[in-house]
Design brief:
The chain contains 7 helices and 11 strands. By secondary structure, the chain is an alpha/beta fold. It has a single domain, classed as 3-Layer(aba) Sandwich (Rossmann fold), CATH 3.40.50. The termini are far apart.
Length: 220
């Protein structure tokens, strides 16, 4: 499927899947959306703690990169698992401008290591951030009581409704520890209802720029 690089409104890069008219990040700003949804409303809840993170849709590695950056400020040790069925090519990854846009040249080697590292193998990106990338379908996830936080960053409901189903959110619920949290950019009624059916306590929050609302779900 053809992929096209484009610049989002905050100056950060993303990828468009031309045949689906779907993008990896918000056209209103890849970095600002990632910060709003996954850091402000997710990772920051665990300040000063060791955090086990599951990302649904590793994609370009943007969420992992900003988690690595912000974990230093939040005094966290991160155990990060990224699930991706269709990895982005390294050539395309090298066109992403996240390090420059974040003004963090010191993170360049870490970002490259994230993408150079072997799949299915834990690697220490820094002393306080370990990563495992798992190449598999979301339907194949079978973890139980393992994660504090889930970044649910799958492609949108319009193009892949099966990824926003009760079946998938049951897997997310099982994968979370008690008092675990799931955050996502989406806020469709059917998605909220699917989460609730699986046992989640769900709240609507203000969305990232360009989106009215987002969802945050708790395993109480």
């Amino acid at each position: 499927m053809k992929q096209t690089l484009f610049i989002t409104n905050d100056g950060s890069t993303s990828i468009r899947l031309d045949e689906l008219d779907e993008t990896y990040h918000s056209k209103h700003g890849a970095i600002q959306e990632a910060y709003h949804v996954f850091i402000k409303n997710g990772l920051s809840l665990f300040e000063g703690r060791s955090v086990s993170v599951l990302e649904i849709g590793f994609g370009t590695g943007l969420n992992a990169l900003i988690t690595l950056k912000e974990a230093q400020n939040l005094k966290q040790t991160i155990d990060y698992v990224g699930i991706e069925a269709h990895p982005v090519s390294f050539d395309m990854i090298m066109q992403m401008n996240y390090v420059q846009q974040l003004d963090q040249d010191n993170l360049k080697s870490s970002f490259e290591l994230m993408h150079h590292s072997d799949w299915q193998k834990r690697i220490a990106i820094t002393p306080n951030f370990s990563l495992i990338k798992e190449k598999k379908l979301f339907q194949e996830i079978n973890n139980e009581n393992q994660f504090d936080l889930i970044y649910f960053d799958a492609f949108g409901f319009r193009v892949q409704p099966e990824l926003w189903s009760v079946e998938i959110f049951q897997k997310m619920y099982k994968a979370l520890k008690k008092d675990g949290v799931l955050v996502t950019y989406a806020c469709r009624t059917s998605i909220k209802n699917a989460m609730k059916e699986c046992g989640f306590t769900v709240e609507k929050l203000p969305g990232a720029p360009g989106k009215r609302e987002m969802l945050r779900a708790f395993k109480i």
